[in-house]
Amino acid sequence: MKNTGKPGSKAPKIIRRAAHNVTRDEISKSALKVLYRLHKAGYQSFLVGGGVRDAMLELHPKDFDIATNATPDEVRSLFGNCRLIGRRFRLAHVRFGREIIEVATFRAAANHADDDSAHDTEGRIIRDNVYGTIDEDVWRRDFTCNALYYNIADFSIWDYVGGFEDVKRKRLVLIGDPEQRLREDPVRMLRAVRFAGKLGFTIDKSVVDAMRGHTNRLANVPAARLFDEFLKLFQTGFAKRTFDLLREHKLFGELFPATEEALSEDEEFVAFVHAALQNSDKRVAAGQSVTPMFLLGVFLWLPVKKLAAVRRAEEKMSESQSLSLASYEIVSQLQRRISVPKRFTVPMREMLALQPRFRTVRGKRAIKFLEHRRFRAAYDFMLLQSEVGQGDEVLAKFWTDVQTQSAEERAKSFQMQTGPGKKRRRRRRHKSMQES
Ligand code: ATP
Ligand code: MG
Q1: Catalytic: which of 142, 185, 204, 281?
Q2: Could you tell me which residue, 404 or 120, shows the higher pLDDT?
Q3: What pTM, to 2 d.p., does this model score?
């Protein structure tokens, strides 16, 4: 069996520059500067992680992690634009404008620190703050494809765990014993799926087997960390594929239990979610911005709608009020798993609660809706539903058309009369209210 050797006990396979395709063109100027300066100061200086992996795949990596034997303080003394972050394990952030290059000192894996206090009762790592050497550093990394070290001294790649072959074969293999590695950090299950989605890699059977039956360990992961992971899963351009993989491996329901339940009962909802994910992937590919609040609204839509109907049957309230109330309840449930900041949940609730307003197409209130600060998001949400045949196409067309009309045309569309008699105006308002 490969990879299960004792940490630190193996010599790396060194792949010389002529035998691999990682070019410096794939590495950002800033990352190269940091690598060279560390090297010139006499330290070991390696690019590691996704930067090497993605460069091998010619994916133009954007995020660069550097590993070195210089301590954080030594790193800081080399760079003016450097800040040390983290308390448990200190990392150096070297800043170049908006780009941040992360420099980590080699550290030993937790299971290498010779005591049990590094793990909690369920085997999760709670402490891994021991500096080490490169041949220790490698064993704390998750997948073999993430454990390649590109040496700036001679542009060779150091491979301790067979990652080079695994990148070529497009395989996600955990370093060491898969069961133990997933127990140490259950987020690695999500990372497996994320990399599979992004890179089109196959998750090795040993990893799939180790995940099976243990997905509920995600419940022990801090909700704030899961929100960070949620962003990486769904905002980096491969959301549709990642979503399908999360469901296939029974992970999605651990993140969004109410959504998973709704998905398993309703194919139409699956189609709606798919359309939203595809849309979001297209936006990322086109360099447009995506907001997590929209996707959250999509994920929660059916659970919210169902609960809103219940609340409305219990108590007299408008449809919009019931949607707002139900969103509040469903979001509170979700927060126990994934802690979503208020700046996303508040607009999301508004976006959902505004949906009934699209049905009012006459009068002042209707025309004013166009100026609502959440109109655009609510409109996109409504449009998406109609695009998958789950909304009113006539209404969708109406709200699309009115956005580009002149003031006069608009007044006509909303059947607003310029200067009608008082009586008539009152009658119209009454009619519009009845319709809403
Ligand atoms: P990307 O930047 O595309 O998300 P990445 O592989 O660079 O992918 P990061 O989260 O930036 O991922 O982490 C950098 C490296 O740190 C990884 O490649 C891996 O070697 C190591 N690493 C990160 N998270 C973990 C983890 N949970 N367990 C073990 N190693 C990890
Ligand atoms: Mg990275």
Answers
A1: 142
A2: 404
A3: 0.89
